[in-house]
Design goal:
With 934 residues, the chain is α/β, with parallel strands linked by helices. The chain folds into 5 domains: 285 residues, Rossmann fold; 163 residues, Succinyl-CoA synthetase domains (Rossmann fold); 88 residues, Dna Ligase, domain 1; 127 residues, ATP-grasp fold, B domain (D-amino Acid Aminotransferase, Chain A, domain 1, 2-Layer Sandwich); 173 residues, Gcn5-related N-acetyltransferase (GNAT) (Aminopeptidase, 3-Layer(aba) Sandwich), CATH 3.40.630.30. Helices cover 37% and strands 22% of the residues. The strands form 7 sheets. An 8-stranded mixed beta sheet has the order 30-31-32-33-34-35-37-36, sandwiched between helices. Strand 32 and strand 33 form a beta hairpin. Helix 4 packs parallel to helix 5 and helix 11 crosses helix 17. The longest helix is centred in the middle third of the chain and has 22 residues. The chain is globular. Keywords: ATP-binding, Ligase, Nucleotide-binding, Transferase. In the N-terminal section; belongs to the acetate CoA ligase alpha subunit family. InterPro entries: Acyl-CoA_Synth/Transferase, Acyl_CoA_acyltransferase, ATP-grasp, ATP_grasp_subdomain_1, CoA-bd, GNAT_dom, Ligase_CoA_dom, NAD(P)-bd_dom_sf. This is GCN5-related N-acetyltransferase.
Length: 934
């Protein structure tokens, strides 16, 4: 008999949430603060810190620490941190750099929970400062103290009143979390914020990020319900993988806007490969921001304008903006700014034009921008806005008002109030002018319609909003599962390992074209047939076997850019032409060695400049030459490149950058960022190439890069993409391939790491249930969304209630927005295992159970949850999933695992007891907590 189910009260969730404390709470919400280096010296940092803390009550106690004074500013002082009679949550340190490691050691011994190191003179001062930082870190790790700084302004929590900085004023309270790597910029923005009436939930100068970094603070502010958006001034990214991991999770619910200083030339410019030359570091950073849903802007004003608008208005679903104006000039300015920023003008629908004709004067613009003319009164504005808002072609609205004789800025603003929140469409306003439009601006702002004095600013902000939507959509669109059949032997990893190992044993870092193509083929990438010939006779034999016409190319262990040395001979139609090509290539290399010091040096190092030639069929290049490559970025590790290829690849500079691994959605996004994509879709009577096949090829190439870390650089140039015609079916084929390996002195543990963790295939294994049914237990993946929809259809109300603590309708459980949270996971932060069964007759697959292990931010603990389809319960599947999750936890260095279980969920409690969990009641009588130390 099924139990009567009722939703758990909100109080239960509040209690459970309150029990999850973050170590950074000691920094942002301390009860006790010690100022080490507190002073009465006018103008000193120590005095300013203490004064700011005691004059901005935060509800806690402040303890000055100064060995030379009995009191500071009238407050009892203590010689050392150990002398303070209470446990200190936060120590703010403002003493000379050489003293800081010893002070941190004293803090650890005294049980201090966190510290802000204001002091300068660390890594920015050179090798001695770096050594000091390492001493600090060693001591901090001994006591798990979290540290902000060194060399920072400090931390403000304006909502609570905490001012642990040496700034001259306290920030206004608000809902923007601000993090800056520059203390000087913090003070400038603080001054600016008073003028612009911008308020903050947190105001953090992060310094040199010795311990607490971007990821820690993004997670913390992401969990803070009072923070609605996060804005960042960044000079360096630090731990790229942690930043991406945190930002990807938080950006889905809170906008993260970054201004990054230092748009410098590429560090990779001197790289030997085309890919390295094209993938400059700033473009890689842009790609990383797109991948995790972060929006990058170019000015400080944009930083806060975008934060404001994303907090007030919905993100647009597309790039098309409808501009409504009572003057032509401002509409044109807004249009220019919109197009330059990547937005588009709405193509006004015929139905909308007909409606406008009914309510507007004859001479209205009949186009977008919609000029409703200078005598527009509030009623005309309202009627025109109603039509524009209902136009299905439009993704957003910008209303421009210039004060003219017939215009009433205040009353027009009043009339627009009902349109403040249009579902799925943001509305922005530009009330141009001075004092006469101020009242109207105030009305609009109170209704959460952002206002801008200049229409080009508003148009640019809209484009940023669309860019934010586009970035998030790319992350959470459900991709297509790879088309590669694992039974086909692809990828053939063993063959690749043999080729790379043989080259490394020979001391080679550059693979031959033949070897490179073998590796590409091992991952299912189609390559042109290639035959190696070490003599003229062998070359002719290869050509006869392949069939004329053929291409003859240099075969070398050293030279890779063959066209640079005359190493490519095309369209050879008979044996004599092949012989002549062989001789021409050989003599060209000999001439290079004799005349060019670079090539003579290569010969001295390695005599294998000329090993013969390769012979390949002459492929008609009646298609598009593309490049797909990968090179290393010093911060992000391997990065991918896609774009227009061929000999002029560096001239056209038409390329897109992305981080591996790719799925089909991300592969398509790479294409969309190039100019050649328009041609690939079909142009001038040509059909589209097989874009789905190109997506799959790019995913396979990404998999190769992820799985073969010994590869330093790789590119396919050209990859020929042939559209179908009446005479052929088209296709994709790699005409050339180039692979460079890491040097022999690199050890395996020194190989660059991916910025985004790939699919953890090490956790895939087979298992049999009690009834004998075989299942595959594996990590979840984004492509599982359709299977998860089917899985939720098999769950009873009781199972749903036990898992989620309240009832959720099926229609709500299977929405795309919700399933993205379930399927699109960051394997560095959580691991979800599914039990999948494949029907041996129909080959269809179904998910029978899901278990999830989620790390708790800022700790070494994780929570687990699990649900099994009702039909397959009592078969040992739940126990096995939890056991596997505990194994994963150990391998992922989790210290302890907990779970909250409803008191009447006896089955889950028995599973936990069987596996060694300790069960205990919580402050809510309906909830038990299970815990196990790993």
């Amino acid at each position: 008999m099924q139990k009567s189910l009722k939703p758990t009260s909100d109080r239960t969730f509040d209690i459970l949430q309150a029990e999850k404390l973050n170590p950074l709470d000691a920094i942002f919400a301390p009860k006790t603060v010690a100022v080490i280096g507190a002073s009465e010296t006018p103008g000193s940092v120590g005095r300013t810190l203490l004064w700011n803390l005691i004059t901005n009550p935060f509800g806690g106690t402040v303890f000055p620490v100064n060995p030379k004074r009995h009191s500071v500013l009238g407050i009892k002082a203590y010689p050392k941190i150990a002398d303070i009679p209470e446990t200190v949550d936060l120590a703010v340190i403002a003493t000379p750099a050489p003293t800081v490691p010893g002070i941190i050691a004293e803090c650890v011994d005294a049980g201090v929970k966190s510290a802000i190191v204001i002091s300068a003179g660390f890594k920015e001062a050179g090798a001695a400062g770096i050594a000091l930082e390492q001493e600090i870190l060693t001591q901090a790790r001994r006591g798990n103290i979290r540290i902000i700084g060194p060399n920072c302004l400090g931390v403000m929590s304006p909502l609570s009143g905490l001012n642990a900085t040496f700034a001259s004023a306290m920030a206004r309270p608000g809902n923007v979390g601000f993090i800056s790597q520059s203390g000087a910029l913090c003070t400038a923005i603080l001054d600016w914020s008073f003028q612009e009436n911008v308020g903050f939930s947190a105001f953090v100068s992060i310094g040199s990020m010795l311990d607490v970094g971007w990821g820690d603070l993004i997670y913390y502010l992401g969990d803070d319900p009072r923070t609605k958006s996060i804005v960042i001034y960044m000079e360096s990214i630090g731990d790229a993988r942690y930043f991406i991991s945190a930002a990807r999770e938080v950006a889905l619910t809170k906008p993260i806007i970054v201004i990054k200083a230092g748009r410098t030339e590429a560090a990779a410019k001197a790289a030997a490969s085309h890919t390295g030359a094209l993938a400059e570091s700033d473009a890689v950073l842009d790609a990383a921001f797109r991948r995790c849903g972060v929006l990058r802007v170019n000015s400080i004003s944009d930083l806060f304008d975008v934060a404001e608008v994303l907090a007030k208005q919905p993100r647009p679903k597309g790039p098309r903006l409808t501009i409504l104006t009572n003057a032509g000039g401002p509409g044109v300015l807004a249009t220019d700014a919109l197009i330059e920023a990547g937005g588009e003008l709405t193509a006004i629908s015929e139905e909308a034009i007909a409606s406008f004709d009914k309510i507007l004067p004859t001479h209205w613009s009949h186009n977008n921008p919609i000029d409703i003319l200078g005598d527009a009164d509030p009623q005309r504005y309202t009627q025109a806005l109603e039509i524009a808002a209902n136009d299905p072609n439009s993704d957003g609205l910008l209303v421009i008002l210039t004060p003219q004789a017939m215009t009433d800025p205040t009353q027009t603003a009043e009339q627009l109030k009902p349109y403040a929140q249009i579902p799925g469409k943001p509305i922005l306003a530009s009330w141009m002018g001075g004092a006469e439009v101020t009242a109207g601006e105030t009305i609009l702002n109170r209704q959460r319609i952002p206002t801008y004095r200049y229409p080009d600013t508003a148009a640019r902000v809209f484009s940023y909003m669309w860019q934010s939507s586009y970035n998030l959509r790319g992350i959470y669109e459900t991709p297509v599962l790879s088309a590669v059949d694992p039974n086909s032997g692809i990828p053939d990893r063993n063959s690749v390992t043999k080729i790379i190992s043989a080259a490394r044993q020979d001391g080679r870092t550059i693979l031959t074209e033949f070897e490179s193509k073998q590796i590409l083929a091992a991952y299912g990438i189609p390559v042109v047939p290639t035959c190696v010939a070490k003599s003229e006779d062998e070359a002719v034999k290869c050509a006869d076997s392949i069939g004329y016409p053929v291409v003859v190319k240099l075969y070398s262990h050293v030279i890779t850019h063959k066209t640079d040395v005359g190493g490519v001979q095309l369209n050879l139609r008979d044996a004599e032409a092949v012989r002549q090509a062989y001789r021409t290539i050989k003599s060209s290399i000999e001439e290079k060695i004799a005349k060019d010091p670079h090539y003579s040096a290569l010969k001295t190092q390695n005599s294998a400049l000329f090993l013969g030639v390769t012979v390949q069929p002459m492929v008609k290049t009646d298609g598009y030459e593309l490049i797909i490559g990968s090179s290393l970025d010093p911060q992000f590790g391997p990065v991918l490149l896609f774009g227009t290829g061929g000999q002029l690849v560096e001239v056209f500079q038409d390329r897109a950058i992305a981080l591996p691994p790719l799925n089909t959605t991300l592969a398509r996004r790479m294409m969309e960022h190039t100019k050649i994509y328009k041609a690939l879709k079909g142009v001038r009577g040509r059909q589209s190439i097989d874009l789905a096949a190109l997506e799959q090829l790019m995913v396979a190439f990404s998999q190769l890069v992820v799985e073969q870390p010994w590869i330093k650089e790789i590119d396919i140039n050209p990859l020929l993409a042939i559209p179908p015609t009446a005479l052929n079916s088209g296709g994709l084929i790699a005409l050339d391939g180039r692979i460079v390996l890491h040097t022999p002195d690199i050890q395996e543990q020194q190989l660059p790491k991916l910025a985004i963790r790939p699919y953890p295939s090490q956790y895939i294994s087979e298992w049999a249930m009690k009834n004998g049914m075989s299942v595959t237990i594996r990590p979840i993946r984004p492509e599982d969304e359709p299977l998860m929809v089917q899985f939720h259809q098999t769950l009873s109300e009781e199972s749903v209630y036990f898992r989620y603590f309240h009832l959720i309708k099926l229609s709500q459980r299977i929405t795309h927005e919700r399933l993205t949270r379930i399927c699109f996971i960051d394997y560095d932060r959580e691991m979800a295992l599914v039990a999948e069964h494949q029907n041996p007759q129909t080959k269809t697959k179904q998910i029978l159970a899901v278990g999830r292990l989620s790390k708790l931010h800022g700790t070494d603990a994780a929570e687990f949850a699990m649900i099994v389809s009702d039909r397959y319960q009592c078969q040992g599947l739940g126990t096995e999933l939890v056991r596997r999750l505990l194994q994963v936890g150990r391998q992922e260095n989790i210290g302890r695992v907990t779970a909250n279980i409803l008191s009447d969920n006896n089955g889950m409690q028995r599973v936990c007891e069987k596996l060694g969990f300790h069960l205990q009641p919580t402050s809510d009588s309906t909830v038990m907590q299970a815990e196990i130390a790993l």
